[in-house]
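Need residues for this backbone.
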């Protein structure tokens, strides 16, 4: 009780957010670091000069369609309009990673956070399908708001300027839209969310399961139904209390964060859940966080609060930001109220205020594309096919599902989507096959193995398999059965294959 009185004395009875800002920025630095690390490892083989979908070609198409580079810059803002190369992508990503570590280490100001936001926006806007996920624009919106939590220049963990209360409220508004958007898209989408059966399938059919997913999949059905009810409660009811009195906010924050932690445990959803925790931290004030954080950190926050230097400029900027966010929120609110709700959509070129949602549809069965190659000169009934293994998605039934989040192997995610469609809807898979037929080093870096280390295969094919979790206790993790052909047998000298690649300017030797 004495500790609580001391905290309230220094932190003005719950109206102070020095520790809140500190925790928000540290977690944001972590998420940025992961995001830039993914970019450093994967951008070149995905969108580099000889990548699967080169960003230079993408920008050229945008410029042609819009009539000028200036029009393209306004529609798709990115620093890469001024030049893009493989070395540039690598240097850019590693600089972003290094700056993220500075924020994670406790030092951040408005300039540094603005640089990180502009850098990551530049990547997202040339990332094409590889960066078409809702958490990319969510990171941009979160990163943009974070700029205004800090002083312009003072980068100390506890600067003398108070965190603007209006920006804290904008974080709560972001968290509200994320959760309510996710809840409404479920109720309006797949009927299994209404009859409480979606989690009969989700753990098995989600993009990249982990080992715990197996055990959750075989949990009793009453437990799955309870989970869906709890999901609706947390996504549709709890967020409203993030705007309530202190106790209600604290309870809401705990429920919202523990919900995200459970999602982290149950699957590999990239850095989405870590990122989603950030706006929920705004539910907590210093009197709450002061009970749990190390005493040296709390004392530093108390010292900053005692030496407060008010700033009319930062207050004015916070008011202007709030007015802008309210204005940009109008279409997102109308979208939430609409029967044709859009999921993970941005209404402005800078992705400042967006609409969100997740798993509006849940697959009942898991189909996986398995790429196979052979070095036989002639295809016969005795041809031996060797499988390419990906880093995270299911392949070899005996291989344990990995723990990979918050890192995201982006090609694995896109293969998951492609398995639900046809090659015509995912033409990059043809370029992927072409790269495998030439043992392209960059492309092979995206996957787990190369069955042909000495010389490229003569033929590649892709088959579709249906995967199911093996019962708990059995040796394999998966059981699979063939569904059919996804891509026919292809070779580097196939005339039709070459003409198709040439039409897309992908015939790189």
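Answer:
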């Amino acid at each position: 009780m004495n500790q609580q009185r001391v905290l309230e004395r220094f932190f003005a009875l719950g109206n102070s957010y020095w520790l809140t800002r500190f925790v928000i920025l540290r977690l944001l630095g972590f998420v940025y670091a992961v995001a830039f690390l993914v970019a450093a490892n994967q951008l070149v083989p995905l969108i580099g000069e000889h990548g699967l979908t080169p960003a230079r070609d993408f920008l050229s198409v945008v410029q042609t369609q819009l009539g000028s580079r200036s029009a393209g810059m306004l529609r798709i803002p990115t620093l890469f309009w001024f030049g893009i190369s493989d070395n540039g992508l690598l240097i850019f990503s590693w600089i972003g990673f290094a700056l993220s570590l500075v924020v994670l280490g406790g030092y951040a100001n408005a300039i540094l956070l603005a640089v990180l936001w502009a850098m990551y926006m530049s990547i997202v806007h040339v990332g094409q399908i590889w960066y078409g996920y809702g958490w990319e624009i969510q990171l941009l919106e979160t990163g943009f708001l974070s700029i205004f939590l800090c002083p312009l220049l003072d980068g100390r963990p506890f600067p003398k300027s108070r965190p603007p209360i209006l920006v804290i409220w904008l974080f709560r508004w972001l968290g509200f839209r994320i959760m309510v958007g996710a809840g409404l898209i479920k109720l309006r989408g797949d009927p299994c969310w209404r009859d409480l059966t979606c989690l009969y399938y989700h753990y098995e059919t989600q993009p990249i399961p982990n080992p715990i997913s197996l055990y959750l999949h075989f949990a009793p059905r009453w437990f799955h139904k309870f989970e869906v009810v709890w999901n609706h409660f947390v996504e549709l009811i709890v967020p409203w209390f993030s705007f309530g009195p202190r106790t209600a906010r604290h309870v809401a924050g705990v429920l919202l964060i523990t919900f995200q932690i459970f999602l982290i445990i149950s699957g590999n959803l990239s850095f989405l859940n870590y990122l989603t925790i950030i706006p929920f931290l705004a539910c907590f004030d210093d009197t709450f966080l002061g009970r749990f954080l190390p005493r040296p950190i709390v004392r530093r926050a108390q010292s900053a609060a005692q030496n407060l230097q008010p700033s009319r400029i930062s207050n004015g900027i916070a008011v202007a930001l709030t007015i802008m966010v309210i204005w940009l929120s109008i279409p997102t609110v109308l979208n939430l109220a609409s029967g044709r709700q859009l999921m993970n959509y941005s209404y402005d070129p800078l992705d400042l205020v967006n609409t969100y949602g997740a798993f509006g549809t849940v697959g009942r069965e898991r189909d996986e594309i398995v790429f196979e190659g052979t070095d036989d000169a002639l295809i016969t009934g005795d041809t031996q096919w060797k499988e390419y293994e990906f880093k995270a998605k299911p392949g070899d039934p005996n291989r344990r599902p990995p723990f990979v989040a918050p890192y995201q192997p982006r090609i694995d995610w896109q293969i998951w989507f492609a398995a639900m469609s046809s090659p015509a809807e995912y033409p990059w898979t043809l370029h992927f096959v072409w790269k495998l037929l030439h043992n392209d080093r960059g492309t092979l870096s995206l996957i787990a193995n190369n069955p042909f280390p000495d010389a490229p295969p003569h033929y590649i094919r892709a088959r579709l398999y249906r995967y199911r979790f093996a019962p708990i206790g059995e040796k394999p993790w998966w059981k699979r059965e063939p569904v059919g052909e996804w891509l026919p047998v292809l070779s580097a000298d196939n005339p039709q294959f070459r003409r198709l690649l040439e039409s897309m300017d992908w015939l790189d030797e």
